[in-house]
Design brief:
Keywords: Hydrolase. InterPro entries: NUDIX_hydrolase-like_dom_sf (IPR015797), NUDIX_hydrolase_CS (IPR020084), NUDIX_hydrolase_dom (IPR000086). This is NUDIX domain-containing protein. GO terms for molecular function: hydrolase activity. This protein has 3 helices and 9 strands; from the N terminus they run E-E-E-E-E-E-H-E-E-E-H-H. It has 162 residues and is an alpha+beta fold. The protein has a single domain, classed as Nucleoside Triphosphate Pyrophosphohydrolase, CATH 3.90.79.10. Strands 1, 2, 3, 4, 5, 6, 7, 8 and 9 form a 9-stranded mixed beta sheet that branches. The longest helix has 13 residues. It is globular.
Length: 162
């Protein structure tokens, strides 16, 4: 089943699916759990959001997950599972293919210097969409339906508990 809805930013449209519509993703989004707690990072401009980012030249998509988790949260991953993919169209043109992962973090180290995030927050419970929508401290990227739908998909997943 595919979901289609507007993106968080103007002129965006998103298609979300549990399968892969396009084999080569250029970005990742990570629902990471450390000791059963959801890991959020504070981007220095956008606010609180899930770790993730762009794939670099010559990097596999799993290497992207590992690198982004370290750069944005100081996290080392024990387990990684792809749980979906979404496509972001801007003005009708495909600009991002993001694979969505759930991961179990084995270690959280100090944030490395020189990257885009300033802080890590661990949450006992996955915030409800309404909490995110009403709180300006959250990134606009958390305010589309991707988070809402995937939060339902991961309920009860083994990575979400100790």
């Amino acid at each position: 089943m595919n979901y289609e809805f507007p993106g968080a930013l103007p002129n965006q449209n998103i298609i979300l699916t549990r399968t892969s519509l396009i084999e080569e993703a250029n970005c990742v989004l990570i629902f990471a759990f450390y000791k059963g707690k959801l890991v959020l990072v504070r981007h220095h401009c956008r606010g609180w959001e899930l770790p993730g980012g762009n794939r670099e030249e010559g990097e596999s998509i799993i290497q992207t997950v590992i690198r982004e988790m370290y750069e944005e949260a100081g996290g080392e991953l024990e387990s990684i599972e792809r749980i979906g993919q979404y496509l972001i169209y801007e003005q009708g043109h495909l600009v991002f293919v993001k694979n969505i992962y759930i991961s179990k973090v084995s270690v959280l180290r100090e944030l490395p210097n020189g990257f885009e995030t300033d802080e890590v927050m661990l949450l006992e419970t996955i915030p409800k969409q309404i909490e995110i929508m009403e709180d300006p401290a959250f990134s606009p990227y958390m305010k589309d339906s991707v988070y809402l739908i995937v939060a339902e998909w991961i309920k009860g997943h083994p990575f979400t508990s100790l």
